[in-house]
Amino acid sequence: ETGVTQSPTHLIKTRGQQVTLRCSSQSGHNTVSWYQQALGQGPQFIFQYYREEENGRGNFPPRFSGLQFPNYSSELNVNALELDDSALYLCASSYRDPSGYEQFFGPGTRLTVL
Amino acid sequence: AQKITQTQPGMFVQEKEAVTLDCTYDTSDPSYGLFWYKQPSSGEMIFLIYQGSYDQQNATEGRYSLNFQKARKSANLVISASQLGDSAMYFCAMRATSGTYKYIFGTGTRLKVLA
Asked: Could you give the C-alpha distances from B60 to A76, A83, B3, B48, in angstroms and in order?
């Protein structure tokens, strides 16, 4: 069983640029969630995709957007990067059903904005 | 609004001793799940244990147990027989069992196991 993978591992961008982060969900999972984890903080929910549609969003501006593809992999796009966007971005996949509860996290992408 | 509170920024424990990491939560959802994750310095979130709000018994997974007190809205993690490899950040999280299924995380507790 292949786990959740994310690419790239590390990324350095400058303020104002755009970035795309990628996530491959665990086999059989149909839901992907994205989290931002600033240094020394807990992960903050950005949004979730279920069957290719956004299904819930946290308190993040519209310049954070995403996609989920038919194979359930996902992208997180951030436009007009700001210094405060520097963080670890975590992707988590799960199988959504009423009894399902566990999210499996990827290793994260560490984004640095200069 | 849902909220998770972890009041211990850092904890020390002697190897082979037990340690309790505190977590309180707030939610108006009648049904929810509570989780603990371990995050080593590598950054990956490792699932430790889960407790459903309607579960009658406290969850246990090996050396991990969850002390669930619903009336007090607390879900403390107990690690027995601590090992040096247990040194990491520990996060308590809550998930509603309806709607977006999003997770709300606490701010974490950094545990250091001493030899």
From this structure: 35, 42, 24, 9
CA distance B44 to chain A (A): 4
Query: For residue A110, what pLDDT band results from cuts at 50, 70 and 90?
Result: very high
Pairwise CB contact (< 8 Å): B45 & A90: yes
- DSSP class of residue B84? G
- The 3-state secondary structure of A40-109 reads CCCCEEEEEEECCEEEEECCCCCCEEEEECCCCCEEEEECCCCHHHCEEEEEEEECCCCCCCCCEECCCE
Average pLDDT of chain B to the nearest whole number = 93
Contact residues, chain B to chain A, C-beta under 8 Å: 4, 33, 35, 37, 42-47, 50, 52, 91, 93, 95, 97, 99-108
Q: How confident is the model at residue A97 (pLDDT cuts 50, 70, 90)?
A: low
Q: How confident is the model at residue A28 (pLDDT cuts 50, 70, 90)?
A: confident
